[in-house]
Design goal:
The protein has 14 helices and no strands. By secondary structure, it is an all-alpha fold. The protein folds into 2 domains: 2-53; 74-293, MetI-like (MetI-like fold, Orthogonal Bundle). α12 (244-252) packs antiparallel against α13 (259-279).
Length: 294
């Protein structure tokens, strides 16, 4: 009798384990399927943009949802000839990478003492920095233009890099402060025992540990700088200094937008950023993963 009871209990336990595994498997399949649907939903507009870029204006008007029967490259030839594309790409890449490097370096240097020195004064500074992230663009744009005009920084690479650096520094300081605060202080104490100065401790101990945080921050800064349209349009006047977004705008215009001009310009404008992301994807993804785990 006891043997049959034990066997039934074992069967019930095994059944519960199987049901739990089935529930977990079903949950995993459901979540993965939902994520897949979301990714597909986000990629549909991109796929539509690319397909329409290979069709003539007449084909798009007659069949706006149909696949292209043949690849028409005339739209891209027209865009490349009239956009000053390669020069604008070089401008955007140079400005974006310069801002990313400067913001990452200065932001981490400013965040290091803020993360290690406590007190009301430090908290007040962090609060002021946080308020800088919430400042609307229309509030900043007029004083920035006036100051740059008086300083002679309009229509210069240095000026536009300086603007983007100032706009992204609050985010970098706020971001690095939290990350450095999680680094054990014992590492710095060991550096002091080795007679390292404050600067040497930052450069040789703290800075190498910020690789994942820097990669995550660089992604946000890169997207913000590359896609920004207002400040380059306002501060730059030379055609040879325009960024990709300004070149796209000047090419398609703001009236009577033609689809055979819009779609190839949009593809060309986003393609370099996609290439940059693919080039740095390992570093960026490792940074995002490390931030999520921490």
């Amino acid at each position: 009798m006891s043997a049959s009871i034990n066997s039934s209990q074992r069967l019930n336990t095994a059944g519960k384990k199987v049901s739990k595994r089935a529930k977990k498997r079903f949950t995993a399949i459901f979540i993965n399927g939902l994520i897949l649907l979301m990714v597909i939903g986000m990629l549909i507009p991109v796929a539509y943009m690319v397909m329409m870029s290979f069709k003539t204006g007449t084909q798009i008007a007659n069949d706006p949802l149909g696949l292209p029967t043949s690849f028409y490259f005339g739209n891209y030839i027209n865009a490349l000839e009239n956009m000053n594309y390669f020069r604008s790409v070089l401008n955007s890449v140079g400005i974006t990478l310069s801002v990313v490097v400067i913001v990452s370096l200065i932001g981490s240097m400013a965040a290091y003492p803020l993360a290690r020195v406590g007190g009301i004064f430090t908290k007040s500074i962090i609060l002021i920095v946080s308020l800088g992230m919430a400042m609307p663009t229309f509030v900043n744009i007029t004083p920035i233009y006036v100051i740059f005009r008086d300083l002679g920084l309009l229509d210069s690479y240095f000026g536009i890099i300086l603007v983007f650096t100032a706009l992204n520094l609050p985010l970098a300081i706020f971001f690095f402060t939290g990350f450095i605060g999680a680094i054990p202080k014992e590492l710095e104490e060991a550096a002091k025992l080795d007679r390292c100065t404050y600067w040497q401790t930052y450069w040789y101990v703290i800075r190498p540990l910020l690789g994942s945080a820097t990669a995550t921050l660089s992604l946000f800064v890169m997207l913000m700088v590359w896609n920004d349209f207002l400040y380059p349009l306002l501060l730059l006047t030379d055609d040879n200094k325009f960024t990709v977004m300004v070149s796209v705008y000047r090419f398609i215009g703001n009236r009577n937008i033609e689809p055979d001009m819009l779609f190839p310009a949009a593809v060309l404008g986003s393609l370099p950023l996609l290439v940059l992301f693919m080039f740095f994807q390992r570093r960026i993804l490792s940074g995002v993963t490390a931030g999520a785990v921490k």
